[in-house]
């Protein structure tokens, strides 16, 4: 990146952490069913590190499935929201390149909407070090289903207004950095949807890094224009929002 560096984008979430917590989408139940299928073990009783946990959206859903979850999150603002939403959750302030955990201590390491902020050359070996034999590394991303015309139009407006802007933050390849370290990789894509509102969707857009780094007056003007365009499309303010979820799971018998 030029100008703003990746770290500026990665650390932009602290000031918008409450907005992120209130308006970012969750994940469908099928995701966790797929995790159990692809890892070959139940989440109940599993020791899980949720790295790049953010405000704990995935952390709480994993806990609800009975996993023993430790959240790993570098941002103070995001960590504060996580602890407010899930008091008592073990939380470590760290990033994925240097996990402050002993070797062979986790059954599953997850990156929910976060792996793209790491350097895979460092984060994948770190995950493998911390995983127990037979453990798994799971990466997933929600991204708007741009095959839907109104979502494609919204994306195009943001692309035109922002340089750079990457509406799909998932890397081009997630299988390669996992496979090259000896993990057996399976990729799955899920379709799901949620009911939301124009105002909530616009607030969710404002929690994305490419908008969070903007000066407030620029961001507010851009989001006001997007709200107006969506109000034309959805005059009653209610939206059924389609998502695609991309999941990559790497498992290796020699992990640990």
List the helices and strands and how they pair.
Blueprint: H1 6-10, H2 17-23, H3 29-39, E1 47-51, H4 57-64, E2 68-72, H5 76-85, E3 91-92, E4 106-112, H6 120-130, E5 131-144, H7 149-161, H8 175-179, E6 184-197, H9 198-206, H10 209-212, H11 216-233, E7 238-251
Parallel strand pairs: 1-2, 1-4, 2-3, 4-5
Antiparallel strand pairs: 5-7, 6-7
Helix pairs in contact: 2-9, 7-11, 9-11
State the distance separating the first and last CA atoms. Answer: 34 Å
Biggest sheet features: 7 strands, mixed
Q: Within the largest sheet, what's the order of strands?
A: 3-2-1-4-5-7-6
Name given to the CATH architecture of the domain at 6-144 and 169-194 and 244-251: 3-Layer(aba) Sandwich
* Oligomeric status: single chain
What name does CATH use for the topology of the domain at 6-144 and 169-194 and 244-251?
A: Rossmann fold
Structural class: alpha/beta
Overall number of strands: 7
Overall geometric form = globular
Which residues sit in consecutive blocks of at least 5 with pLDDT less than 50? Answer: none
What's the gist of this structure?
With 256 residues, the protein is α/β, with parallel strands linked by helices. It contains 11 helices and 7 strands. Helix 9 (198-206) packs antiparallel against helix 11 (216-233).
């Amino acid at each position: 990146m030029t100008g703003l560096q990746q770290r500026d984008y990665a650390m932009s979430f602290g000031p918008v952490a409450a907005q992120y917590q209130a308006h970012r989408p969750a994940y469908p139940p099928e995701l966790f069913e797929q995790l159990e299928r692809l890892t070959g073990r139940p989440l109940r009783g599993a020791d899980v590190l949720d790295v790049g946990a953010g405000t704990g959206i995935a952390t709480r859903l994993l806990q609800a499935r009975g996993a023993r979850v430790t959240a790993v999150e570098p941002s103070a603002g995001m960590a504060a929201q996580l602890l407010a939403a899930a008091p008592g959750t073990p939380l470590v302030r760290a990033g994925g390149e240097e996990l402050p955990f002993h070797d062979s201590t986790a059954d599953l390491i997850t990156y929910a909407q976060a792996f793209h902020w790491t350097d895979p050359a460092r984060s994948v070996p770190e995950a493998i070090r911390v995983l127990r034999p037979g453990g798994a590394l799971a990466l997933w991303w929600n991204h708007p289903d741009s095959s839907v015309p109104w979502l494609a139009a919204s994306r195009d407006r943001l692309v035109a207004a922002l340089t750079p802007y990457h509406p799909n933050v998932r890397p081009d390849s997630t299988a390669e950095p996992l496979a090259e370290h000896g993990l057996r990789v399976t990729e799955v894509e899920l379709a799901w949807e949620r009911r939301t509102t124009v105002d909530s969707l616009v607030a969710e857009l404002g929690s994305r890094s490419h908008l969070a780094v903007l000066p407030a007056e620029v961001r507010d003007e851009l989001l006001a224009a997007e709200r107006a365009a969506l109000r034309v499309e959805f005059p009653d303010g209610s939206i059924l929002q389609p998502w695609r979820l991309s999941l990559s799971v790497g498992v290796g018998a020699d992990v640990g």
